[in-house]
Amino acid sequence: MTVMTERTSSQLSVDMFERIAEFAEREDETVRFEFIDGRIGLRKVTNGNHSTIIMWLIRQCMQARPELDLDPTQGLKVEGYRNGRALPDGALAPVGYFAGQGDWADPDGVLMTIEITSYDADTHDRDRMEKPRGYAEAGVPVYLLIDRENASVVVHSKPDPEDGYRDIHTVKIGDMVTLPDPVGITLDTDRLKPYMD
Predict the structure, then answer these.
(1) 4 and 34 in contact (C-beta within 8 Å)?
(2) Do 142 and 179 meet the contact criterion of CB atoms below 8 Å apart?
(3) Given pLDDT bands bounded at 50, 70 and 90, which one contains residue 3?
(4) What is the pTM of this model?
(5) Would you tell me which CATH number, out of the four given (3.40.50.300, 3.90.1570.10, 3.30.1360.170, 2.160.10.10), belongs to the domain 47-195?
(6) Burial, 118: exposed, middle or buried (Cβ in 10 Å; 0-12, 13-18, 19+)?
(7) DSSP string of 117-149?
(8) Statement: residue 6 has pLDDT above 60
(9) What is the pLDDT of residues 114-171, one digit of tens each?
(10) CA–CA dist 137, 167 (Å, integer)
């Protein structure tokens, strides 16, 4: 579950956000913070289905592309998106790419980001609108959205820093979906049917 604060007329600096997030996460390990579109987001621990989907995706990526890691904890700098900091549910990159980059890595070497919708009031704006725009502006080639509410998989590709992703392809959970290059992995989403709630 994610809760976003309201935007204010005086924007918080990225440095101040990083200090707040580092302190708060030390005090309570059950939450993570992100900074998108001038707002601080608080992400609480997800339910078991959310985590099961992430683990399934990690296994699929490792089997298909062992030279890549799908990291479910790495934050990304999405500088073009109002000097933001995004915490995707997964970031796919070459093995070792995130080493030494700290909590907020450069997205240049990231091949794909993944988000899995939560059942909260902010999921539409955050996962379907703000994050795809931020990842496209940062040049992430593929954005994969597992939309549990709509029982669908949405593949965004061909990022344009001005217009967002130019190619958006949606399939129903249960269908096969091929993630475009540079990812090049085919997923049988039938395995995800039990985890849509």
Answers:
(1) no
(2) yes
(3) very low
(4) 0.77
(5) 3.90.1570.10
(6) buried
(7) --SSTTHIIIIIIIHHHHHHHTT-SEEEEEETT
(8) no
(9) 999 877 666 667 778 888 988 999 999 999 999 998 999 999 999 998 889 999 999 9
(10) 14
